[in-house]
Write the structure tokens for this entry.
Amino acid sequence: MWTIELRFTTDNAEHTAARLAARPAHRVALAALHADGRLHAAGPFADDSGALLILDVPTRTALDAVLAADPYFHLPAVQLTNIREWSPVVGPESR
């Protein structure tokens, strides 16, 4: 499993507008990942400064392909700040 942390930049109104315009299509992509079991959870932080995703894909290459397929992750207002492999010890996917 992988955790992905995003940060939303707000210093450019045009970039923020582009991010908000892309959000509905991004959420459709997230719903598809969830439906096929690759996305366990995703959502913005309470202060809307960024978001967290938990994905279950076998390799970093597979994760990179998932991220590359969603243009939201390539917007200037969306910065990938942290990508880490994660091994949960409690929960339905514990190893």
Observations:
- The domain at 2-85 is CATH 3.30.70.1060 (Alpha-Beta Plaits).
- Strands lie at 2-8, 39-44, 50-55, 78-85.
